[in-house]
Write the structure tokens for this entry.
Amino acid sequence: MSKIVADQNMPALEHTFARHGELFRLDGRRIKHSHVIDADVLLVRSVTPVNAALLQDTAVRFIGSATIGIDHLDTQWLEDNHIAWAHAPGCNADAAAQYTLAMMALACERLQQDFKQQTVGIIGRGNVGSRLERLLQALDIPVVACDPPLQEQGEHGLVSMSEACANSMISLHVPLTRSGAYPTENLFDVEQLKSLQAGTLLLNTCRGGVVEKAALLQQLTSGRIRAALDVWPDEPYIDHELLDAVTVASPHIAGYSREGKFAGTEMIYEAYCRKFGFGEDGQARSLNKETTLELSPQMPAGEVLQQLLQSSCPVARDDAALRALPEGGGRVQFDSLRSAYPQRYEFKSHRLIGLTGELRQQFIELGCKAT
């Protein structure tokens, strides 16, 4: 029987991978070489670096990462050592895009600005960025996107970095890369941050390393720009001064919807079955809980959006929980919030009752059910 080591925060493993072996659940940040030396399968999330130090001279032959990004995987080493790997691009893209939208709305509320009067520049029009763009378009909020790799491939409708960064809000949705034609590590460095217009709101829900920490802190403490961060340098630790300086804060949970988590498990399970010739006899799909919001036909669109965002993406709750964590040595550690994160459901699991006409159609375009 195969030995399967898995991050304890991954759902639906009993109905999928456990059918093919003995399952051992561990804290993803604490998985060590000794835990996997005789394992056949390793299932991780973004908090587990998967490289030679972890896997050298082990029996592992399949890595499944239930994540969009792969910067925690040394894919070249895996391939050189004939270890199959799979990840889950797009699994929680809807969740991350919707949560980013909610962060924007809360930041505007705290800054006493009208969300509908903002303009947005998206950096990275991949799985998450493209979904956020569609959400903003459905709300009639002006939005442009910059994505040099996609532009090089011939995709139309993209703008330059300077054009994207000329907007009142800038939202980052790029992978963390350190090489190639378009590396993104410290993409927003001292010079890039200085080039932003005063009053700009910078949102980051992709990877903390895309923004240079010291430069960002200087810009925030000076009051020149604002920030809403779900991802942080030095995770799972947050510099307390940086936490105090941001307008909206959350503990790297933008993609933590129930639907997204189950989709991640399902996607890597399907890859595992294809690789080793198993029938997909397991089922990882979430049994979604439909939430009903009863609304008045006379309710303004802004109030409807506020109710939807509070139900599906409770950013204010997450922000308060993060800021309430104890400080130690000038830092806050947020893993306790991630491991005990409450169930959260995407727009598609929400049914809005009472809307009519154009308003009903607008929220259907956001992904809700409306009757």
Observations:
- The mean pLDDT is 95.
